[in-house]
Specification:
It is built from 10 helices and 17 strands. It is α/β, with parallel strands linked by helices. Helix 1 packs parallel to helix 2 and helix 1 packs parallel to helix 9.
């Protein structure tokens, strides 16, 4: 087990809606405030998506990312900002001709998916390695697209956070470490509980952790009701943890969380009761090899 545990808070994500949680942060102000609330509760990293403030739907608009980051940095210069590059990989085959994209397709050029990373140079940028069935569509991240995005992320001075949903995604990362696309030491996040990916179980998380490069820094999480149990499993296996409204809306069975801060507080309490210490943002920067 780690002596200092990094808590990441994923504050809003792409898929959670206000039907799932009426307090889901949507506007740039709300998202920034929720990141600061999570930091005050003990999170060292804020994982950031943005939404269209009018519709609440996922967005890739640079102006929303700019406003969120500006509002956070006005009040907190230490919190580690992990900005998503996940949107832009979904493919929905049309009913008439599956070779033609249907209306739910968001697939775009990899360069477009990282434009905001080039502009804003966050501490960390997600780099999804999954090509998989996701709901009724598929997510596509080809090796060439991953390489293109990785090159741009490194050029921006950001650290890629490698999100893996199944064993093949880890094997892809290992191959990319060998060919120089990825650079050690790496940062991984093991995602469990997404249908057709890693199941949310201790055995599966332990197996996934063993497949990672020996010098990797890793965290893990589970979606829905497995959020806290998988967070604690990550801690017990020597990893770091992630919680947040992106992954889970509830603090306990049938009880909605007050917000991201309460979810972080619960994770912190559980870790400390198991004998762990929570890493500050500055300690997390040292662990991850990030600039102060």
């Amino acid at each position: 087990m780690k002596s200092d545990v990094i808590i990441t808070c994923a504050v809003t994500g792409n898929l959670t809606t206000r039907e799932n949680h009426p307090g889901l942060p949507v506007t740039p102000q709300e998202i920034a405030d929720s990141c600061l609330e999570a930091a005050a509760a003990g999170a060292a990293i804020a994982h950031i998506h943005v939404r269209d403030p009018e519709t609440g739907k996922p967005s890739m608009e640079l102006k929303y990312y700019e406003e969120v980051i500006r509002r956070i940095r006005e009040k907190d210069s230490a919190l580690i900002l992990n900005v998503t590059t996940g949107p832009g990989g979904r493919y929905h085959p049309s009913d008439e001709n599956p070779a033609i994209a249907g209306p739910r397709t968001t697939l775009m050029r990899p360069e477009k998916r990282v434009e905001h990373i080039v502009a804003l140079k966050p501490d960390i940028a997600t780099l999804d390695l999954n090509t998989m069935t996701f709901g009724s569509e598929v997510v596509i991240n080809t090796p060439q697209s991953v390489k293109t995005m990785a090159d741009i992320i490194y050029s921006a001075g950001s650290k890629p956070e490698l999100e893996v949903f199944d064993t093949g995604h880890i094997q892809l990362a290992l191959d990319m470490l060998k060919d120089g696309t990825l650079r050690a030491p790496t940062m991984f996040t093991i995602v469990t509980g997404v249908k057709y990916g890693f199941p949310a179980s201790p055995e599966v998380m332990a197996m996934a952790a063993r497949l990672l490069p020996p010098n990797a820094v890793w965290s893990a999480f589970g979606v829905g009701r497995m959020s806290f149990s998988m967070a604690m499993q990550a801690y017990l296996l020597g990893g770091h943890v992630r919680v947040g409204l992106e992954d889970n809306s509830y603090i306990s069975k049938g009880v909605l969380a007050k917000g991201n801060g309460e979810l972080v507080e619960r994770a912190r309490d559980l870790i400390e009761k198991l004998g762990g210490r929570i890493a500050s943002a500055n300690q997390a920067r040292e662990i991850l090899g990030l600039k102060a």
